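WARN retry 2 of 3 for item q-0093 after timeout on previous attempt; input resubmitted unchanged.
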Amino acid sequence: MMNNQNDKWKITHEKAHKMLTDEGMNVTLDEGAEILSFLRFLAEGTVKKFLKDSESGETVENTILDKKN
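OK item q-0093 returned
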């Protein structure tokens, strides 16, 4: 049976915790889960914005620059 690509790339709370502690961050498993949840939230919003901008024909760079001015 083939491995599902989504399972291969899925980061669990435990894996996120290990990655953070391996980088020297002193976080609990619950804190690691919260950080992972927040990063997923940011990633989802970024992808949705990119798709919306690509449907409208605008480039992401232009919409970001417009909001800064």
